[in-house]
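Field reference: sequence -> structure
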Amino acid sequence: MKHAPEIAIVEPNTLTTIGLTGILERMIPVATIRSFSSFAELMDDTPDMYAHYFISAQIYIEHTAFFLPRRPKTIVLAGGESQPLQLANVPTLNIYQTEEQLVKDILKLHQHAHHNEHTTATGHPHGGSGTGEHDLSAREIEVLALLTKGLINKEIADKLNISLTTVITHRKNITEKLGIKSVSGLTIYAVMNGYIEADRI
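Structure field:
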């Protein structure tokens, strides 16, 4: 049984913190997310217990000595015209973009960090531990993968040589089994469970 990952957000901007917390909670419901408005607050906590650090660029630059040894776990929140990025080899997340793009970037960073730690996190290609509580059929997985690429029902039907009604039935089954209605939610599920690579979204 893997324990829930702990994530630290170190960012003085309250709105950025609230937004990022919301996205991460939807992406990784089991994670514990703690936010700190300053580096000092993080130091007063248990700074080494976190699986990931989301750090404001300013705080990262001021406290590079702390974050450099933790580079695989560190993601710098950056972007916008006022902040040219001169952060070599540090994963950065541009916070000035659409929610959908943010989700995709976080998934890529998450996948990248885990590839560095241990290449086969789950052993078999579809991830998960095979608990079977929402096992999708092979056809449903195909439909899910095409959905995450932005195909509409008719395009999916043509691509898989099945009827439109069948695609709609598969989508209904996927939604009921997973309890996820939005395409961005389904994309997160598909990447987290190894059905698609984040780079292919």
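Note: The mean pLDDT is 80.
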